[in-house]
Amino acid sequence: MTDAAALAETDLFSQADQPSIDRLAAASNRRQLDRGDVLFRQDDEPSAVYLVLEGRIAIANRSFDGRESMVALMEDGDLFGEMGLFGHGDGRSADARALEPTTLVELPFAPIKALFDEQPQLLWGVVSMLSQRLRAMDNALADSVFLDVTGRTAKRLLDMAGENDEFVLPLTQEELAGMVGASRERVNKSINQFIRLGWLAQTERGYSITNRQQLEIRSR
Description:
Largest sheet: 4 strands, antiparallel
Order of helices and strands: HHEEEEEEEEHHHEHHEEH
Strand order of the largest sheet: 1-8-3-6
Structural class: alpha+beta
CATH topology of the largest domain: Jelly Rolls
Distance between the termini: 37 Å
CATH class of the largest domain: Mainly Beta
Helix content: 40-55%
Shape: elongated
Number of helices: 8
CATH architecture of the largest domain: Sandwich
CATH superfamily of the largest domain: Jelly Rolls
């Protein structure tokens, strides 16, 4: 897929006409990251949005003592880093780090702002994207209040598996714990419990869901 085609599929630019998309694509460039590469850190000055073409990016916050909480996982087709477009000198709100070899489209703010100045009706795409971000935050907050660690672990595993029963975790145990919001030991204990109950099986390359219904019940 070309950079222009990928940009046209995002909520932010889905209503833009082809000449506008082509101008944005011409102003962008591709970035290649290896696993562990940091794209930006919390409080860095923002200057671009990013679109994942292939790979995975972890968006994470760090506490004063170095502990990490992963707040989002960006995968193929996901666009991120847009908050800086509308800030007032604020730095990045989180770190962004590659979890595996990743290809990104990097699009500077300047051509985006110029497009919105010319065609302000396109800002409805911004509203759509931000509303989805708020919904995701609301769901995450509800999970932290109403689900225990085992329930949150079940939900994360189902999210990562999608419609497939066989799946490979794209995260280390520490990273998964950061997404769940618990210690690595407690998350591992939950996974081992699912295996003992016969809801999940460990395979040579990852995991296999053997009782999706029970995992879904436990994730509610």
